[in-house]
Amino acid sequence: MSFYVRARFDVHDQQEFEEVARALRDQAATEPGTLTYRWFSGEPGSYVVIEEYTDVDAAFAHNDRGAALLARGGECADMVEAEIYGDITGELWDWVAANPVFTAYPEVFAQPD
User: 36: Cβ–Cβ under 8 A, 6 or more apart, which residues?
Assistant: First the structure.
């Protein structure tokens, strides 16, 4: 079952942020568990990323692999909201509770295997 992330950022340093976002996009293109990793912007200084992974483990692997880039991104932008969709396990619920910018949406009508 796929796992989705949607996050919105308010950017302080657009040039640096775009460099980081491009590097994360390029990294994601080589990850077998990353299905979609796309950036959007409706106005200057505001960005949204849509991510789709094969599962939660692939999402965490992406974050682990890109930890240095994500830290750089955090220095030039604020994540103002984020949503995760999919198989939300007990451990992931705990993580969401510790990160109030995130909202979790577990799938309610999953397709049978």
Answer: 50, 51, 52
Residues found in the chain? 113
Query: Under CATH, what is the fold of the domain 3-106?
Result: Alpha-Beta Plaits (3.30.70)
Which residue in 95, 64, 67, 68 sits closest to 82, CA to CA?
Answer: 95
Residues 29-78: pLDDT tens digits?
A: 999 999 999 999 999 999 999 999 999 999 999 999 999 999 999 999 99
Q: What is the pTM of this model?
A: 0.91
Cβ atoms of 81 and 8 closer than 8 Å: yes
- Domain boundaries of the chain, sorted by first residue: 3-106
